[in-house]
Amino acid sequence: MSEIKSTLDLIMEKTKHLTMNEEEKKKYREKETAGKVKGLVQRRLDGLLTGERFHKEIGALFRETEDEGAVKNLFRDEVAGRLELGGENEPLLDMLKTAIGADPEPVRTILYNYESKAALLRDSQEKTLRKKLRKRGISGPAAVPNLEADPAWRQALEDLRKDLKEELKAETS
Fold it and tell me: Which of 48-71 are b and which e, b meaning 16 or more Cβ less than 10 Å from the residue's Cβ?
């Protein structure tokens, strides 16, 4: 009488001859490490890891990987990808210093410069929208332009954010 095999047994039987080559193993390890870095950063931001625990986890991650430089680059990229104009960036900048020993001042300066550019752009776009409203006969202290509804403002802000991300990536590389 034949035995009934589980789905797992069938899969294992059909894939027992499959193996990963070195390049596939390396890519898998890199993807796994990137996931761990992302998880560490997110847990720290969520307050689930204290500073001391975060430091221990980072140390463990460095010890378990062969390429410390690659882990540092993953941290840089993850933090740089999360920095936002007008956002609360101090915890991220602190992580840069804590995790990889990078000086956060150049990044802080770039953020400040872009936030200043965004403020100037906002003022300029508000003036433009006020002029448009005046031409349509709408004026007074209660007439406040809605920048978020203006496609030109959204595009300009998106372009500014894109430039910021590129400059941050260049700075943190």
Answer: ebeeeebeebbeebeeebeeeeeb
Domain co-membership, 98 together with 148:
no
Q: Among 102, 131, 164, which residue terminates a domain?
A: 102
pLDDT digits (tens, 9 = 90+) for 129-141: 999 989 999 888 8
Residue (of 158, 170, 80, 167) closest to 118 by Cα position? 158
Q: Which two tokens stand for residue 158?
A: 């998106």
pLDDT at 1: 45
Output the pTM of the full model.
Answer: 0.72
91, 111: one domain? no
Q: Which domain holds residue 85?
A: 1-102
